[in-house]
Amino acid sequence: EGHDNPDRSVAFYRLDMNAGMQERMRIESGLRHALGHGELALYYQPKFEIGTDRVVGAEALVRWVHPERGLVSPAEFIPLAESTGLIVQVGEWVLEQACAQAAVWQAAGLPPMRVAVNVSAREFTNSLPGRVAETLRRYELDPSWLELEITEGTLMHDIERVIGIMDRITELGVALSLDDFGTGYSSLSYLKRFPIQTLKIDRSFTTGIPDDANDCAIASAIISMGRQLKLRVIAEGVETLDQLQFLRKAGCDEVQGFLYAAPLPAYEFERGLRENWLLLA
Ligand code: C2E
Ligand code: MG
Ligand code: MG
Ligand code: MG
């Protein structure tokens, strides 16, 4: 081997390493440990149809239940997991867990409600459709229970290959949505070629409604473009009644945010369904 003295190379890297790198390595090895020791959890945030106020789906959001630090936000470890490749294992765990939970809800007789799983660009490979199909089969889960949220970053490279993967996923009956819409670089001319069902207006735009004229204009434009393209539009990060009112008037189809509910553990989500919310049957 080139590095015949491992101790020396470690020492070399330590000397050179700034606090940020050390922190990243600490999180990475912690996350590896978390994967093997059941420290990840999925939370579920309901999505509501504006016209009916009913639950139409749930976004699955991963949490790291750290023995000392408590709940660690994905904002802290997903970008790192993406850059190290660990996202693939995290993503496999998330899809498995989300389908297991959806199968429980399906077996309980709930009307189909899409459970949406976030999928990073690095997970969007040729093997993904097969893995999704296999997982649905194993849980005997109807595909109308599953949705994948992808971001514009996924669409940036090798667009023909990406469209091929998208087609294979939607042919299964699984829905696709475009997350954080408006923050990336995707070319609008491609939008009509993507087999997506839904555009998600990024929270950074929702936040500025109704005071920031630019954010209002961008949200309205996304909504009317979505309508023209026959896509559903959902706004994420809805926290106030003013925002809801604006979005309703602008013709937005669905909302998701703290105004209705935060991401919740499955049992609290079920309690919400039992006591507070109605499902769209
Ligand atoms: P995202 O997919 O855009 O998810 C929406 C984020 O907004 C979630 O943050 C959610 O908790 C938060 N949120 C929802 N409503 C509100 C609101 O009214 N106000 C505010 N301030 N925030 C709200 P979270 O759970 O921290 O996740 C952050 C990001 O991490 C996600 O953004 C997604 O990009 C990524 N992520 C989460 N889980 C997964 C996963 O399982 N796989 C992958 N690849 N990425 C994930
Ligand atoms: Mg999402
Ligand atoms: Mg989003
Ligand atoms: Mg977002």
Describe the structure.
This protein is α/β, with parallel strands linked by helices and 281 residues long. 46% of the residues lie in helices and 20% in strands. It contains eleven helices and ten strands. Strands 1-2-4-5-6-7-8-9 form an eight-stranded mixed beta barrel, surrounded by five helices. β6, α7 (188-191) and β7 (198-201) form a beta-alpha-beta unit. The N and C termini lie far apart (62 Å). The model has no long low-confidence stretch (mean pLDDT 92). One magnesium ion (MG) binds at residues 59, 118, 149, 179. Residues 24-277 form the EAL domain.
Cα-atom Rg, whole angstroms? 20 Å
Q: Bound compounds, please? A: ligand C2E, magnesium ion
Strand content: 15-25%
The coarse silhouette is globular
Q: Compute the number of strand runs.
A: 10
Going by helix content, strand content and strand pairing, the class is alpha/beta
Helix share of residues?
Answer: 40-55%
Number of H- or I-type helical stretches: 11
Regions with pLDDT < 50 over 5+ consecutive residues?
none
Overall mean pLDDT: 92
Terminal CA distance: 62 Å
- Could you give a short account of the major beta sheet? 8 strands, mixed, barrel
The largest sheet has its strands arranged as 1-2-4-5-6-7-8-9
SSE order, as H and E?
Answer: HHEEEHHEHEHEHEHHEHEEH
Protein name: EAL domain-containing protein
Domain EAL: 24-277
